[in-house]
Amino acid sequence: MLTPILARAQAKKPLNILWVTCEDTSPDLGCYGDPYALTPNLDKLAAEGCRYDLAFSHAPVCAPARSGIITGMYPTTIGSHHMRCHAVPQPFVRCFPEYLRATGYYCTNNSKTDYNFPPPPTAWDECSNKAHWRNRPDKSQPFFAVFNIGTTHESQCWAIDGKLDHDPAKANLPPYYADTPIIRRNWARYYDQVTKMDGQVAGILRQLGDDGLADNTVVFFYGDHGRGLTRGKRWCYDSGLRVPLLIRWPGVIKPGSTSDRLVMFIDFGPTVLSIAGIQPPEHMQGRAFLGEFDTPPRDCVFAARDRMDETYDIIRSVRDKRFRYIRNFEPHKPYAQRINYMEKMPILQEMRRLHAEGKLEGPQKLWFAPTKPVEELYDTAKDPHEIDNLAGKPEFQDVLAKMRKQLDDWMKETKDLGLIPEGELRAKGIPGGRPDKTADPKIEPAGGRFDKPVSVAITCPTEGASIAYALEGGQTPHWLLYSKPFALDKSAAVRARACRIGWKDSAEVKATFEVG
């Protein structure tokens, strides 16, 4: 039951919370000091709130990243660390919007999920490309609304022909790229997509203002991991893990402020709960960084990369405010293993051509080495592109030893599943058991005729099950989250279904009540 966790939910008028997120985007925005970026609307949002300079994903690809966001847990703990897998987490794991719904929030997601498990019906009031806070039946009901913008996804950067709004000649390329017209056009195309996304963010914020809700809504904007270009997405460097994070909270966050606090994606869910006055549950590994249940800042953040589509690798990383440490558990494998989807990027095609012709120089050759070092260490203050590996230098051995221990301790404390072969995890049902069908819920009383209002309770014997119920007919009813017995004061047909993350939903059960 969710009730004990919700005991301290705020009594004052609840805040609305809006997330606007985009795909495959690093902090390549004007408000982060990028002169090549054309992002006036996000720059305005930053001026109205706080710009977080050290925000990170815990995974450099969408599905593991999103599974951690929605649960507040490391994917390596709950078994969602591989790209495109079917996770069966421990029974206590829930999608965090359930805790909001249980206190009266209307929760919507528009529309990407990609959690490495199907979204349970208890997670959202609506999850579709039409989901919107405007759809809530009671306009005074507080909401948590998520909008996922796909304009910046890597697939939208494959086409580099035609007119570009950003001048390729003015692009400031990273030193690990060769400087060719194709690479410059691909880089410019990515920035064009960022500008288009900026306009879409403006449209959502405009709707919020038109509805008179801006002053009572906390707005988050962030990217779901680093940029989708070669050596960004899928890799445990800042280019794959560091993300833009802008938060506007009128009357609380000072406009135009900045923060160098280390925050990571698994902190987002607990932070939303904290803003809503709900104490995050103890099992969550994330830490609230705003609101009533704010926690002390982190000393470092962690990340993991495992199977990407058809290609296996095991990489772990820890980052503090200055240094990044990376451990390659399969150093015999090259960085540039082929991944069919990744191969469509023009930058990669061009770099592979130049490598085959022996035309890459200096840092451009690093990613095409036949093997990887076991350890990597970078001073991100002096080497923001992370091309000078300090792991073998005597003067950095103390830093190396410290971060090596931080990573070892984290893997042990969080019970990192990445070193167990994926097939073995599935065969043994690790960590949450083999997927099964959730048991049918039981409605008590089981219907009947009553002269006065009746209290209805719904239970399910499956450990960790959540229960959805509806009081309306039709093929697609609005499924409510069951958190405690409720009173029926008029006749109704109560419909219920139970679910557990990673398991099949139960069958729907129904009880008819005649009241009065």
Q: What CATH architecture of the largest domain do you see? A: 3-Layer(aba) Sandwich
Rg calc = 24 Å
What is the structural class? alpha/beta
Q: What is the tally of helical segments?
A: 10
CATH class of the largest domain: Alpha Beta
Domains, number: 3
Mean pLDDT: 97
Question: What's the count of strands?
Answer: 21
Explain the overall architecture:
By secondary structure, this protein is of the alpha/beta class. The protein has three domains: 10-295, Alkaline Phosphatase, subunit A (3-Layer(aba) Sandwich), CATH 3.40.720.10; 315-428; 442-515, Immunoglobulin-like. Helix content is 20%, strand content 20%. The chain is built from ten helices and 21 strands. The strands form four sheets. Strands 1, 2, 3, 4, 5, 6, 7, 8 and 9 form a nine-stranded mixed sheet that branches. Strand 11 (315-319) and strand 12 form a beta hairpin. The longest helix is centred in the middle third of the chain and has 30 residues, at 181-210. It is globular, with a radius of gyration of 24 Å. Residues 1-11 have low confidence and may be disordered.
Note the main attributes of this structure.
516 residues, alpha/beta, Alkaline Phosphatase, subunit A, Immunoglobulin-like, 3 domains, nine-stranded mixed beta sheet, 10 helices, disordered N terminus
